[in-house]
């Protein structure tokens, strides 16, 4: 596995990736609306194929992960991408790394907490507000759980 900066991935490949894995290139979360192909980030490659991708933004001394996808589970892809962003965040002078996920995403909540992130805030009914901008967000998520709230997780670096 090789980790490379997203600036070395074509816009077309990034657009295709986000359409395939997120339904569109737009990410709508409590912290803002983002066009993912335009964000900073890294891709994990294996045999020239993207097997993982992470995007982030820097805001006021902090970095926020906007998206994280690992197409191969339990092989260290997601952890390697998080580590790379954390390294970059420290280089940029960020004091913390945060991420927002939805209440149904139990797998993500476990993943981030195992890597030192802590739940800091719950944004009640945030997903309904996000659906006003991105109506294709599903109503029901993992494990049949209604997708309603967002949770902010944060790690000091």
From TrEMBL:
One Pfam family this sequence matches: Acetyltransf_1
Matching CDD domains: NAT_SF
MF annotations from Gene Ontology: acyltransferase activity, transferring groups other than amino-acyl groups
Positions of the N-acetyltransferase domain: 1-140
Alphabetized UniProt keyword annotations: Transferase
Protein name, as recorded: GNAT family N-acetyltransferase
Organism annotation: Halobacillus litoralis
């Amino acid at each position: 596995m090789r980790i490379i900066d997203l600036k070395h991935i074509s816009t077309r490949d990034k657009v295709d990736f986000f359409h395939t894995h997120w339904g569109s290139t737009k990410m709508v979360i409590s912290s803002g609306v983002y066009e993912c192909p335009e964000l900073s980030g890294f891709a994990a490659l294996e045999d020239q194929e993207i097997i993982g991708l992470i995007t982030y933004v820097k805001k006021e001394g902090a970095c926020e992960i906007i998206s994280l996808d690992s197409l191969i589970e339990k092989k260290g892809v997601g952890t390697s991408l998080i580590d790379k962003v954390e390294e970059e965040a420290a280089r940029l002078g960020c004091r913390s790394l945060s991420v927002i996920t939805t209440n149904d995403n139990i797998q993500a909540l476990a993943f981030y907490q195992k890597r030192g992130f802590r739940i800091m805030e719950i944004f009640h009914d945030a997903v309904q507000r996000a659906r006003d901008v991105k109506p294709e967000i599903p109503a029901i998520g993992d494990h049949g759980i209604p997708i309603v709230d967002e949770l902010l997780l944060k790690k000091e670096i």
